[in-house]
Write a structure and sequence with these properties.
single chain, 701 residues, alpha+beta, 5-stranded antiparallel beta sheet, 21 helices, 30% helix, Lipoxy_PLAT/LH2, EC 1.13.11.-
Amino acid sequence: MLKPQLTQQSQYSTQTPFLQHFKPFIHGHGNGNASLPISRQSFSKKNKSVRVGFIPGNIKAVASSTEKGTSVKAIVTVKPTVGGFLSNLGITRGLDDIRDLLGQTLQLELVSTELDPRTGLEKETIKGYVHRTSDEKDEVKYESSFEVPADFGEVGAILVENEHHKEMFLKDIILNGFPNGPVHINCNSWVHSKHDDPQKRVFFANKSYLPSQTPSGLRRLREEELVILRGNGQGERKSFERVYDYDVYNDLGDPDSSADLKRPVLGGKDHPYPRRCRTGRPRTETDPLSEKRSSGTAYVPRDESFSEEKRLTFSAKTIYSVLHALVPSLQTAIFDSELGFPNFTAIDSLFNEGVNLPPIENQDKGFLSTLLPRLFKAIADSGEDVLRFETTDTMDRDKFFWFRDEEFARQTLAGVNPYSIQLVTEWPLKSKLDPRIYGPQESAISTEMIEREIKGLMTVEEAINQKKLFILDYHDLFLPYVSKVRQTKGTTLYGSRTLFFLTLDSTLRPLAIELTRPPMDGKPQWKQVFMPCWNATGVWLWRLAKAHVLAHDSGHHQLINHWLRTHAAVEPYVIATNRQLSVIHPIYRLLRPHFRYTMDINALARLILINGGGIIESSFSPGEYSMELSSVAYDQQWQFNLQALPADLINRGMAVEDPTAPHGLKLTIEDYPFANDGLVLWDTIKEWVSDYVNHYYPNPR
């Protein structure tokens, strides 16, 4: 017989401990099988009996009202996990199975939204265990029965304690049968083992409250949960924790393994940068400013991690092994890695003949196409895996379409990077860099060159006034890194400016490209302008100049418009949201779905993509200075108030405010697919978000 035991006071309760009696029993179902036992706990208070039961994951409770209270049946759904409970082997698995048999897998505590009117303190929570009732492929269900006193009030939260030795993934909790309808609690979260941390998890009901409107019975829980999420800024974070704290990018290099892999710290006065999530790893031995890199995955708060399905496919170790096995094979296809492709036939071979895939351990065929579906097509031919680049429809129609001026110009509006083109508003073009270091500031693109190229249609001044001149300007951003990058064997870099003219049919035509090299190696500044030409030498010089611009545009897109603006700049807002807004805050619930996986993707990028010697440094012209260059862009270009699409378009001169125009903006170039489609989405999102926010904040003050 189990003896009464004194239950420790809940860490979320102000009440005194009370005796808890466990009475296991077995229900028969007439089929020779017995259900798992359920433990029941009862206590006496004002001649009212309370019987409690709990269920993890998805909890449904069916209740019936009596004079003494409401009888509730709860159903909890837990999602089976690959690395968590239901899968671990060994002694702890046996202990966990015993707890399941005893009905002690999870302990739940119902929390009232109200305070006790007599004492002004929080009402006693209703505690109980759940027992497993079914075990299916996609979910495991637990059940429990208990009674809620008539004066308990509305259930506003549930405290959960995981008695297993491994974490569990709770899907949701539903309590059915209350007079006012069911209580829904969507968990979709990991619950750590009490053996890792005795702190109980709190899950709030699916109601949103502003801080001033939070029920009195939940206010302390709300604040204490935020304290947990903020952490104390000390020690190395553990994988099961949910702490959101800030740190600088001091883990991109690996100076302990090689001095060549030392990288500057991004974040601070010298290299401004958004903050990342703090991991608390120790510092490197050779550089006290740098943090040691993880051999596996880097810490992110537990609920920011990939789902287990994604984790199995996109783990850092797996992607690292695949890409580092793949790159040498691609380099083999390039006859001389220092010279690149010797001719167009060698490029065509990647599409027509493909590259033999390297063996990838522990992966079945088709894995690579799953990993990189937009880039590669993996096929099996004669028993050998072959990697072929997938061609676009445009290339199928015209193999050299990308060479043509029309496509070169179209890409600025509808290509991979439609974020950089801007209106020319000042003439002549002039650098803002220090002429003592980088040479004369004046551009080599003259008025005569432009007016000759537009064939007398108008003067440069008229073209600017009529908003006909546009520019891709990578001059001042890239020029300070030209001499540094050129120290890397087989690599070159220029600062560049590219001018376009808006024709009568509303399409862009390239006019001129200026490439600039700063003073270096005892030589003065060099700059040259390339223009469309018909003679053989001029044609190829023009094509090579366009190739340089495309390399600049691609690198700028990946490093700045993609990584910096989409990933790095968002992470501090993910951290701040979790540190400052409770999960029951309506704005938290608005933002949460859009932040999903951002931190885990960023952590993965720091391990294998943007790290020293990683894929980005190996693939883009700035090489080891790639991330440092993105820091300069953040310092000079990034502003929060310019991240909205309408503000961005106006700032680049690609639109002006016009209340009579669709979306309230008149585009400078009517055929601008990125803006045309983007503004439709922007207005839809803005309308929905505005209605949502106005519902909770009807008074703008």
